[in-house]
Design goal:
The complex is a heterodimer of chains A (366) and B (602).
Chain A lengths: L8 E6 L1 E2 L11 E2 L2 H17 L5 E8 L7 H12 L2 E12 L5 H9 L4 E7 L3 H6 L6 H14 L4 E7 L6 H13 L4 E6 L7 H4 L7 H17 L3 E4 L2 E3 L6 H7 L5 E3 L4 E4 L2 E5 L3 H5 L4 E6 L2 H12 L6 E2 H8 L3 H4 L1 H9 L3 E4 L2 E4 L1 H5 L1 H5 L4
Helix pairs in contact in A: 2-3, 3-5, 6-8
Chain B lengths: L7 E8 L5 H11 L17 H6 L7 E7 L5 E7 L8 H8 L4 E7 L6 H12 L3 E7 L8 H12 L7 E2 L8 H11 L12 E10 L3 E10 L1 E3 L3 E4 L4 E4 L2 E5 L3 E3 L2 E3 L3 E5 L13 E4 L18 E7 L5 H13 L5 E7 L3 E8 L2 H14 L4 E3 L6 E5 L4 E4 L11 E16 L3 H10 L3 E7 L4 E9 H5 L2 H8 L5 E11 L2 E8 L2 E2 L5 E4 L3 H15 L7 E7 L2 E8 L15 H16 L1 E4 L2 E4 L13
Parallel strand pairs in B: 1-3, 1-4, 4-5, 5-6
Antiparallel strand pairs in B: 2-3, 7-8, 7-16, 8-15, 9-14, 10-11, 10-16, 12-13, 12-15, 17-19, 17-20, 18-19, 21-22, 21-23, 23-25, 23-26, 24-25, 27-28, 27-29, 27-30, 30-31, 32-33
Classes of the chains: A alpha/beta (366), B alpha+beta (602).
Chain lengths: 366, 602
C-alpha cells in the first residue's frame, strides 16, 4: 500500500479567491495577477520535481481554481493534463460566480471530467450571510451550462448548521440540491475555526442535538432520492464515488502540491508551507511525518473507518499481524451492543450511528 | 561568626492574613542587608510558589539576620515566620516554641481579628514577650490610637512599647529592630549542659539526606558529634551544621539559644519528627523537651491517583510531604470505583487544598479527591462504637443504634449590619444559637454551635460573600452529639459508586440529592449512551437526572486528504481522557467527586 510505484494520485492547490468566505480556514489569499504569475511558476517547478506520469486521479482544489485568469487557467490545465493516464479521473473545483463558459470549455478541452461546485446553500439570503456572491438561480444555470458542454460527473457542496437555521430550511436546501440531479453531493456542517471571520464574530457552531437531527433528516432524504453515503460526508449515485477521495480513505499514497497542500509519498506524510514567500522560493515542505508501523495502523483506521464499507479484517491482519476482533473484543462487543459497529463480509465498519460519533469510538483502538 | 547568648534574639511575627506580616519581614531583611535589593522578591520568606500566589504563609520558615543596633553592638536575630490561617495553628505553635518573643502585627485600618487572637493566646501560653506593631499607618483610614486601645482592652497587652510602621514604605521599621533588641529577652540555656535541641522542621535533600531545622535549648552540637533523635531512638553522626541567612551557611557549631540546621545522612524521613528532641548520644540529656501538642485532623478525604499505576508515586510523595507537615496523616485504603489510594486527614479545608496542590505541582501527580468528610461516631445495637472516616463504610442501618457527629463552637465577628445574613447562614447549616455580643461600636461577635460537617464545605466562602469579606471566623471543637443522619449513595448507570457516598442530614436529604444529581449531570460529559445518575438512601432512589448520550462527535471535514491534523487532534483528546477516571463504562472527571458536597446551584 505504501509503495511509491502505486502512487497514482495528485492534489494541486490553487490558493486564490476573489472573496474570502467568513467560515473558510483553508490556505487562501486574494487573487492578484502579481501573485498568481510567480505562484504558477513555483507550482510547476514543484510538480516537475516529482517526475509524475500517468496519474490515475488528479484533483485541482483551492481556494478557487476558477479565480485564475483564462490564460493562467489554461496554462495550468495544459501542464496538468499531460500527467493524466488514459481513463483517469480529473476533477476541478469551481465557484458558481466565476465558472464562466470560457472556463467550462477550457476544462472540457483539457480533459477535466469531473466538476466540483461549491453551492453551500440554496437560499439567497443565507448565501449573502456566509459571504457567497451568487444566487441559487445562477447555480442552476451554471450546472445547465456544464451539462451542455458535456460534463457527466458533477459534484456540488452543501452546508448546514448555520446560525438560526431551521429544519425546514435544511429540507428545502436538500430538495433544491436534489433537483440539480448531480452525480455526487458533499454535505458538511458549519465548523467555526479560529482565525476565521465567523470565529472572530463569536458565531457558535450548532449544538450537537440539533446538528444530529438535521443530519439524520438529510441522510434519510438523500437515501430516498437514490444516493448512497459511501463516506461520512459524501453521497453519490452508484458508480460515481470520487476515485480521488477514495485514495485518501483507503490510506493510499498521493502527491500534494501547492501552498499548504498535504501529501503522502514513500511512507512520509508531509505538509507544504503556508508561507507564500517561502513557497515561491522553492522551500515547499514544512512538516514531515515518517509513518511507522504504529502511525500506519492509526491512519489505516482513521481513513478506512470513514467509509461505509470500513476495512477488510484480513487486510488488517496481513498488515499488522494482529487479529483486530480479538485484540479489541471487549470494546467491540460493547460497541456492537449499542449498534455502533457492524461486521459483514469480512469487513469491520461503523454503522450510521457509529459514524456520527466515530471520533470518540476510534480512540479505543489507538 | 559566634555570638554570645546576650546578643541573640529568637522571635516570630504573628499577624492576620493581609495585615502585612510578610511585607514587614521583607523590609527587615532589606534593612539589615540580609538580602540585597537585587535578590529581593516580594514575600521572600514565602518560598513556595503556592504561598506567593495565594499571598499566604503555609510553612514556617526560619532566617538568621545580623543587626547592628544603635548601641553599637551587633545582634543575631532568628526570625521564624508563622502562618496566619487557623488551619495552620499547629505550625504556629511549632514556631513559637522556638522563640522568646514575637511581634504582633495589626493592621491600623482593621484592628484585631478573631484569628489573630488565637495565635496571640498561643504566644501568651508560651510565655513569650509580645511587641505590638501597628502597620499600614500610611493609609488615610489608619487609626493607630484606636487600634492600640483595642489591643490593650481586648488582649490585655500594654501598648507603651508599640511601634507604628508602614511595612510598605519602610517608615518606622528601624524602630521595630530596636524594639526587638530592647524588649525581647535573649534565650536562656546553658552551653555546658548536655545537648537539647528542638526539631521544628525538616526537609529532604538528595545529597545530604534529611536536613533538620533545630533550635538549641541547651548544650551545643558540632560536626562529628554522635546525636540521638530521642522519640525515634535513632543515632546518627553529624556531617554538617549551619545557619540560614536564608541561604545556608556552614558553621562550626550551634550552641544554646541558636537556631540553625544539621544534617547527618539521615535516610529515613520517618525518623525525624517535628517536636522531637535531639541530644548527644554519648552524653545524653535526662529528658526530652516538652515538644508539641499533636493536632488532630478534623477533615478526611480519599486521595487516589487518576492513573492507578501511580499509586506508589503517590505513596512516596505523601511520605515526603508528611516529613515537614506533621499534621498530615494518611493510611492506605481501597475503593471499588477508584482502586488503590489513601484516606488522608487534614487540619481543615485550606490544609487539604494546599496538600493537593503541592502533590500535583511538586510531584507531578494527577489526583482524585473524594468529598471531605468528618469522623462520625457510629453506635451499634451490640454496644460497639465505630469511628467512621469514610461514608461508604457505614454499616447496614439495621445494625445502627445512633450516629453522632462532631460539633464546633464557632465565633464569628462581623460588622453589625451583616448580623442578619450571618445568622441566616448558621441556621441553614443546622447551627444552634448561643450568644450575640458587641465587640466594639461597629462589630458584633456571634456564637453558634455548628456541625463540623456543615462548615467543611464552602462555609467560609459563603460567610465572606455574605459580609463583603468583613467577617472573621474561628472555631474550636466542642463535642459529639447525636444527629438524624443517613448515608446517601450515588448510582451511575445503576451501579453504586462508593467514592461518591456521603453522610447527609435526613431532613433535607431530598433537596440535597436533587442538587447533587443535577450537578453531576453538569460535570460529567455526555457518554456513548444515556447514563442515569441517581441519589439513593437505604436503597431507595430519591433523585435522578440523565446524562445524555453523545449525538455527534466527528470531524467530518478533512480537506485535501490532510488526515495528520485530525490524528493529532485525536491524540490530544486521548490525553484529555487520561485525566478522567473510567468507572465501569462511564468516564468521570476529577471534580465530580467533590461535587457531591454541592449545597446549592452556584
Amino acid at each position: 500500500m505504501t509503495n511509491s510505484t502505486n502512487n497514482k494520485s495528485l492534489y494541486i492547490h490553487i490558493p486564490f479567491c476573489e472573496h474570502l468566505c467568513p467560515y473558510c480556514d483553508f490556505t487562501k489569499l486574494f487573487y492578484f495577477e502579481k501573485f498568481s504569475k510567480p505562484y504558477l511558476e513555483a507550482l510547476f517547478k514543484e510538480i516537475d520535481s516529482y517526475h509524475l506520469i500517468k496519474m490515475d486521479t488528479i484533483y485541482i482544489g483551492g481556494g478557487t481554481p476558477t479565480s485564475l485568469s483564462d490564460i493562467e487557467f489554461e496554462s495550468l490545465l495544459k501542464k496538468v493534463s499531460n500527467l493524466l493516464n488514459r481513463g483517469g479521473e480529473f476533477t476541478c473545483e469551481a465557484n458558481v460566480e466565476n465558472l464562466t463558459s470560457q472556463k467550462l470549455s477550457l476544462m472540457a478541452r483539457y480533459g477535466v471530467n469531473r466538476l466540483s461546485i461549491g453551492i453551500q446553500s440554496t437560499h439567497d439570503e443565507r448565501l449573502s450571510q456566509i459571504g457567497r456572491f451568487h444566487t441559487f438561480e445562477k447555480a442552476r444555470d451554471v450546472i445547465k451550462n456544464a451539462r451542455d458542454v458535456g460534463f457527466k460527473n458533477i459534484n456540488v457542496d452543501l452546508m448546514y448548521g448555520f446560525p438560526g437555521q431551521t429544519l425546514d430550511e435544511v429540507k428545502d436546501d436538500v430538495n433544491n440540491i436534489l433537483s440539480l440531479k448531480t452525480e455526487h453531493i458533499s454535505i458538511y456542517s458549519l465548523i467555526v475555526s479560529p482565525g476565521t471571520l465567523f470565529f472572530n464574530k463569536n458565531i457558535k457552531e450548532q449544538n450537537q442535538d440539533d446538528s444530529r437531527l438535521f443530519y439524520d433528516t438529510i441522510l434519510q432524504m438523500m437515501r430516498e432520492a437514490g444516493y448512497e453515503r459511501y463516506e461520512i460526508s459524501n453521497f453519490s449515485k452508484p458508480g460515481y464515488e470520487s476515485r480521488h477521495n477514495l485514495v485518501y480513505w483507503h490510506n493510499q499514497e498521493y502527491y500534494g502540491v501547492g501552498l499548504g497542500a498535504s501529501g503522502y509519498v514513500n511512507g512520509v506524510r508531509y505538509k507544504n508551507t503556508s508561507n507564500f514567500e517561502k513557497y515561491l522560493a522553492g522551500d515547499c515542505v514544512s512538516e514531515r511525518e515518517k509513518v511507522d508501523q504504529k502511525l500506519l495502523r492509526e491512519y489505516f483506521l482513521l481513513t478506512h473507518l470513514r467509509l461505509k464499507e470500513g476495512f477488510s479484517l484480513s487486510e488488517y491482519k496481513e498488515l499488522f499481524n494482529k487479529d483486530f476482533l480479538q485484540k479489541y473484543q471487549t470494546k467491540i462487543d460493547e460497541y456492537a451492543k449499542n449498534n455502533f459497529v457492524k461486521i459483514s463480509d469480512g469487513n469491520f465498519a461503523f454503522t450510521d450511528d457509529g459514524l456520527m460519533v466515530m471520533d470518540r469510538l476510534i480512540l479505543s483502538f489507538f | 561568626m559566634k555570638f554570645d547568648r546576650e546578643h541573640i534574639r529568637n522571635f516570630s511575627i504573628i499577624a492576620h492574613i493581609d495585615h502585612g506580616k510578610s511585607t514587614l519581614a521583607d523590609r527587615v531583611l532589606e534593612l539589615t542587608e540580609t538580602i540585597s535589593k537585587r535578590e529581593m522578591h516580594d514575600q521572600f520568606l514565602d518560598s513556595m510558589d503556592l504561598e506567593r500566589e495565594r499571598g499566604i504563609t503555609i510553612k514556617l520558615n526560619a532566617v538568621t539576620i545580623k543587626y547592628k543596633a544603635k548601641n553599637g553592638e551587633t545582634y543575631l536575630f532568628n526570625l521564624i515566620d508563622t502562618p496566619g490561617h487557623v488551619d495552620f495553628t499547629y505550625e504556629v505553635s511549632r514556631s513559637l516554641a522556638a522563640c522568646e518573643g514575637c511581634l504582633l502585627v495589626v493592621d491600623a485600618t482593621q484592628g484585631v481579628e478573631a484569628q489573630t487572637l488565637a495565635n496571640v493566646y498561643l504566644a501568651v501560653d508560651n510565655n513569650l514577650e509580645i511587641v505590638p506593631v501597628i502597620n499600614k499607618i500610611d493609609l488615610p483610614s489608619a487609626m493607630p490610637e484606636m487600634v492600640k486601645d483595642e489591643i490593650e482592652k481586648r488582649i490585655g497587652i500594654s501598648c507603651v512599647n508599640a511601634c507604628e510602621v508602614s511595612a510598605k514604605t519602610g517608615a518606622g521599621v528601624p524602630d521595630v529592630l530596636e524594639a526587638v533588641v530592647k524588649y525581647i529577652p535573649s534565650p536562656n540555656g546553658d552551653d555546658n549542659k548536655p545537648l537539647q535541641a528542638l526539631i521544628f522542621d525538616s526537609y529532604y535533600d538528595s545529597y545530604r539526606g534529611v536536613v533538620v531545622l533545630i533550635c538549641v535549648k541547651n548544650g551545643s552540637v558540632k560536626v562529628g558529634d554522635k546525636i540521638r533523635l530521642m522519640a525515634a531512638n535513632k543515632e546518627y553522626e553529624v556531617t554538617e551544621v549551619g545557619i540560614r541567612t536564608p541561604k545556608e551557611i556552614k558553621v562550626d557549631s550551634l550552641s544554646a539559644g541558636e537556631v540553625g540546621y544539621l544534617a547527618g545522612q539521615i535516610k529515613d524521613i520517618r525518623d525525624v519528627v517535628p517536636g522531637d528532641t535531639i541530644t548527644n548520644a554519648i552524653q545524653p540529656c535526662e529528658k526530652p523537651l516538652p515538644g508539641y501538642r499533636k493536632m488532630n485532623p478534623m477533615v478526611y478525604c480519599g486521595l487516589y491517583p487518576v492513573d492507578s499505576k501511580k499509586y506508589l508515586d503517590l505513596k512516596d510523595a505523601l511520605e515526603k510531604l508528611s516529613l515537614n507537615d506533621a499534621s498530615l496523616v494518611y493510611e492506605a485504603e481501597t475503593s471499588q470505583a477508584l482502586g488503590f489510594g489513601f484516606r488522608c486527614g487534614f487540619l481543615g479545608l485550606l490544609h487539604m487544598d494546599v496538600v493537593q496542590e503541592r502533590l500535583e505541582r511538586e510531584y507531578g501527580l494527577d489526583l482524585i479527591l473524594t468529598a471531605p468528610s468528618v469522623i462520625y461516631h457510629v453506635y451499634l445495637q451490640n454496644g460497639d462504637m465505630i469511628k467512621l472516616d469514610n461514608p461508604s463504610k457505614l454499616p447496614d442501618l439495621t445494625l445502627i443504634k445512633e450516629i453522632q457527629e462532631p460539633f464546633v463552637k464557632a465565633e464569628i465577628m462581623t460588622p453589625k449590619e451583616y448580623v442578619g445574613p450571618v445568622m441566616e447562614l448558621c441556621k441553614e447549616r443546622r447551627g444552634i444559637y448561643h450568644d450575640l455580643q458587641y465587640f466594639d461600636d461597629t462589630r458584633m461577635i456571634i456564637t453558634y454551635e455548628l456541625p463540623l460537617a456543615e462548615i467543611v464545605y464552602n462555609f467560609f466562602d459563603k460567610l465572606k460573600s455574605y459580609t463583603k469579606g468583613y467577617a472573621s471566623f474561628d472555631y474550636e471543637y466542642s463535642g459529639y452529639y447525636a444527629s438524624n443522619l443517613a448515608k446517601m449513595d450515588i448510582l451511575l448507570n445503576g451501579e453504586t459508586i462508593d467514592a461518591l457516598s456521603t453522610i447527609v442530614y435526613k431532613t433535607n436529604a431530598y433537596e440535597r440529592g436533587s442538587v447533587v444529581v443535577r450537578k453531576l449531570k453538569e460535570i460529567i460529559p455526555r457518554q456513548q449512551f444515556e447514563v442515569p445518575v441517581q441519589a439513593a438512601i437505604n436503597g431507595k432512589v430519591i433523585a435522578r437526572a440523565d446524562i445524555k448520550a453523545v449525538r455527534k462527535d466527528v470531524l467530518a471535514k478533512c480537506y485535501g486528504g490532510d488526515i495528520s491534523r485530525k490524528r493529532k487532534l485525536l491524540e490530544k483528546q486521548k490525553e484529555g481522557k487520561k485525566r478522567m477516571k473510567a468507572i465501569g463504562s462511564v468516564e468521570v472527571p476529577q471534580e465530580a467527586f467533590m461535587s457531591v458536597l454541592s449545597i446549592d446551584d452556584e
